[in-house]
Structure formats: structure tokens, C-alpha cells
TrEMBL record:
Keywords of the record: Membrane, Oxidoreductase, Transmembrane, Transmembrane helix
Protein name per the record: Thiosulfate dehydrogenase [quinone] large subunit
Transmembrane stretches, start-end: 29-48, 92-112, 119-139, 159-180
Top-level enzyme category: oxidoreductase
Molecular functions per Gene Ontology: thiosulfate dehydrogenase (quinone) activity
Enzyme Commission number(s) of this protein: 1.8.5.2
Recorded superkingdom: Bacteria
Length: 196
């Protein structure tokens, strides 16, 4: 009788531990889905703001549909860092505008939908690292002698967005509140797992 009681208690403890683990896994999946959707919205919002000039980062007169350049303002103001002249050369170039806008749109849609997260994470991380380098937070002062706008010389919001993209891609966060499961069943995605 005693052995049976201990066995029953052990089974009950195991069942509770399993249930707790399942609840934590569900909560973790939901948290990652929320991170995925909000991160994707950051990219998609930037696309629409630059396209239409929603008067947040981009004034209406500078909207891409009104002849403005999505890259000229940001890249032409780069005042520090080893890539300053490179970014100035890229500022306003038609190919830079198109790549930037296509990147913002594709990354935003893919991440919100939960599809192609690996490709979106690579592209988004590259974009964020380039933008981090353009702001060059490692410099304490700009070339004009003004203090840098960065509050942390190494980790700023560009790095946080890149890490968020990598995290949602590596954890398969597109399966919760997204189309990740359906996407993974497509023959081309099954044959080329890097498309997940």
C-alpha cells in the first residue's frame, strides 16, 4: 500500500510538472509571436511612413510617392564613422532607395505573417547593422563636436531589432499566430529549409 501511494504521488507530481511546462511553453510561444508581430510592424510602419510621408519620421513633402528619397536624408547626415563617405555616396541613389524600401516591406510582411523568417532575419539583421554603422554610436562626439545621440555606445535599438529577428527565426515563432506551419508544408520550403 505504501509503495502504491508513493507511486501515485510521483505520478501526480510528474503530471503537474508536465502541465506547468506545457503552460510555460504556450506562454513562451505567445510571447515570441507578439515579439515577431511587433518587430515586423516596426519595419512595415517605416515602409509606409517613407512611402506616404505620414509626418512621423518623414514629412509628407518628402514622401517617396512625392519624389522624395527614403535614403537621402538619413545617409547624407552621417557625420561620423569609418563608412561616412560610403553612406554619403549611397544617399539618394535609386538602387539604394529601391533596396531599402523593398527590404522594409518584405521584412515587415514576412515577419508579421511568420513566413520566410530565416531570410527575413538575415536581410533585417544586415539592414540594422548598416543603420547602426551609419549612426556609429561608438563615437562619443559627432564631427560637429556635439555629443552623440546614442545612450549606449554598443547596443542600441538597431541591435535589439536584429536580435529580435534572429530569435523569432531560430525559434520558429511563425507557427503561433502566423502562417509558419502552412508555409513549412509547401514543397519548395520542404526542399529548401533555409526558406523557413
Amino acid at each position: 500500500m505504501t509503495a502504491f501511494s508513493h507511486s501515485g504521488a510521483a505520478t501526480g507530481t510528474t503530471a503537474r510538472a508536465t502541465a506547468t511546462t506545457a503552460v510555460r511553453a504556450d506562454a513562451g510561444a505567445i510571447a515570441l509571436a507578439a515579439l515577431r508581430i511587433t518587430t515586423g510592424f516596426v519595419f512595415l510602419w517605416a515602409f509606409f511612413d517613407k512611402l506616404f510621408g505620414l509626418d512621423y519620421a518623414t514629412k509628407s513633402a518628402n514622401a517617396w510617392i512625392n519624389g522624395g528619397s527614403p535614403t537621402k536624408g538619413f545617409l547624407s547626415r552621417v557625420a561620423v564613422g569609418p563608412f561616412e563617405s560610403t553612406f554619403h555616396a549611397w544617399a539618394g541613389a535609386w538602387w539604394a532607395d529601391w533596396l531599402f524600401m523593398l527590404g522594409l516591406f518584405a521584412i515587415g510582411v514576412a515577419v508579421i505573417a511568420g513566413i520566410g523568417l530565416r531570410v527575413a532575419a538575415i536581410a533585417g539583421t544586415l539592414m540594422m547593422l548598416l543603420m547602426w554603422a551609419a549612426e556609429w554610436p561608438l563615437a562619443q562626439f559627432t564631427s560637429a563636436g556635439e555629443p552623440s545621440m546614442s545612450t549606449n555606445p554598443i547596443i542600441d535599438y538597431h541591435i535589439i531589432y536584429a536580435v529580435a529577428l534572429i530569435a523569432v527565426a531560430l525559434t520558429g515563432a511563425g507557427a503561433t499566430w502566423g502562417l509558419g506551419r502552412q508555409w513549412a508544408t509547401l514543397p519548395v520550403v520542404r526542399d529548401h529549409t533555409w526558406l523557413r
